[in-house]
Sequence to fold (611 residues):
Amino acid sequence: MGRSVLFCIAAGFLLSGVLPVEAQEVDFKAKVQAINESINRAKELVREKKFQELGALVVSTETAIDELAAADSQGDFKTVVTRLKRQIATYRKTAERNGIELPKPDETAAVSFVKEVAPIFVNRCGGCHVRNMRGMFSMATIESLLAGPPAGPVVKPGKSVESRLVQLVSEGEMPPNGTRIPEEEIAVLVKWVDGGARFDGDNRMTPLLELVPQAGQPERPMLSVARATGSEKVLFSRDIAPVLVDNCIECHGDQNPRAQLGLDTFQRLLRGGDTGLAIEPGEPDESLLVRKLKGLAGDRMPLNRPALSDDLIEKFATWISEGAKFDGSSETETVVMLANVYQARVMTFDELARKRLELARQNWKLAVPDEAAGVFEAPRFAVVGNVSQGELGRVAEAAARQEKEVARMLRAPSSEPLFKGRLTVFAFKSRFDYQEFSRMVEQRDLGDEVRGHYFFNVVDAYGCLVPPKTGSDDSAADDALACLLSSQIAGAYLESLGTVPRWFSQGGALAVSSKLVPKDPAVLRLRDRLPEAMRNAPSAEAVITGDASVQDLPALQLSFVEFLMSSPSQFTALLKSLKVGTEFQAALARAYRADAKALAMAWAKNNGWSG
Ligand code: HEC
Ligand code: HEC
Fold:
């Protein structure tokens, strides 16, 4: 039966939980701006030697920064806060040096050793001083850490300036491999030592490795994703992603990225590299990435290549000053795909059709290199394969018929194509060729029961099948072909509506073909399977989470989507909202007044299953 491979643009709705509230962000920006102005004013006051006024300004600005830090509960803007604190601290010193007495800054917020300090030691010094004792210095426990190497303690509680550990770290001598630890982590260490190097765990003999749960993974602060609003001048997928693809990912890809900085997905870019965050939203001049492109921070990037043009560097700067927003569907999607998907969105039907035919020829060559493919081009399909030309034409004709049926069934306007660009239909002479295709192009082995499947990712859209043999029973072969094609066309159409979950497109594809060709043996087999699949599934939710065997899942998905379709007006409303760009969860909730989980429970109950 139809089976989709969804290396699809992953579910956008998963993001909604982590998005900063727009209003808060604007508020935050305004506050940072106000503080920046105070700092500029402080500079003037020093020049004008108005130290009394400077003192007052320092105190009020420190309060503003503390408020800012307190409001930043997610720690998204830690780097900005750290920088502001450092800047205002120098003005505090200037005022104090000039005889102004200021109240001590509020240090009541104590640093937690367990939560904040131990992770730094484990992640940055762990290999040499926690799991080992290089230089006879062990940080295995807080006791050995405070005892120091044989030469004596390296931490003086209350006195960071006199603590050798802090000195070595601030001077970049430890860790010794030239990878300085980020400023904000140094600030945590300083604060911890100045606060008395206190231990807030239960037992001073507990190994640091046990205090820090996911020890070993370098832990870094991470920015959260801010979504583009549409009014930005620079868009990540249009302007930035293609530059990263052409100039950076060769060295900053997912395998062994240089400086531990991956630039192959938006998420990895946000996470930063050895030095810490590579971008500070709103602060292009402070952002390591821009500084590296301009050659202002060690080696210029791209390393050993001509510099990017001023125009391109300016694009990065503008993107960051506009808040480093994300306009793609998923921040774990590769930049290659984001760039392609963007391009595909702006292409015309014909341009995309040409692109898909080109991809089809490439894929074919990869899978069946010793046999050229024939091509039959129809207005909305390109059938590509090693069956006879007549057979290619028969498949194209059947596809055109099924497209009309699918459109009618899903109430899509039949006057226009179901989606932009043609659908490629690969028609293989043998099952062996089909399996080779899947192995070479999709890097997976097809199960024996799979007769066809589809793939859709905006750039490419194709279905695969071995045309059923005509002969003794022509109508059975025609039915089998119709069944395969209609599920592939429906599946691709449902995915073209946006980022939809797998159960929906897969179940929808099966539901459509089951209605159109109800007597097909494959459809009957699926229906027979349902009771057993339900018995095997751990809960009703399995249909959504995919927590069922490959044999059971299609039967469950088919039945669940048929349940949703049993209320045609609601199903149509769902498709309509998807079509205008509503994200899936919201569209589902609007149409059915329930979420997927509640609907799955209702479906189970409807089937007499307590689930
Ligand atoms: C790659 C291994 C390695 C890492 C990572 C490392 N160190 Fe060291 N450390 C050493 C070696 C080797 C010595 C002894 C030789 C020396 O002094 O250079 C040492 C010595 C020290 C000493 C005592 C030396 C002195 O001069 O008093 C301190 C304190 C220290 N390290 C702190 C740290 C801290 C803090 C970190 C993490 C931020 C860290 N080290 C990370 C290898 C490492
Ligand atoms: C030929 C390999 C190569 C290419 C191409 C390359 N880089 Fe790098 N990159 C490196 C190496 C090696 C380092 C570590 C040394 C350094 O920081 O100078 C690095 C470091 C960096 C850092 C600092 C990361 C940190 O946390 O320390 C940034 C930012 C960066 N690269 C950005 C880029 C960007 C943006 C591009 C594309 C425009 C790019 N690089 C292209 C090799 C490369």
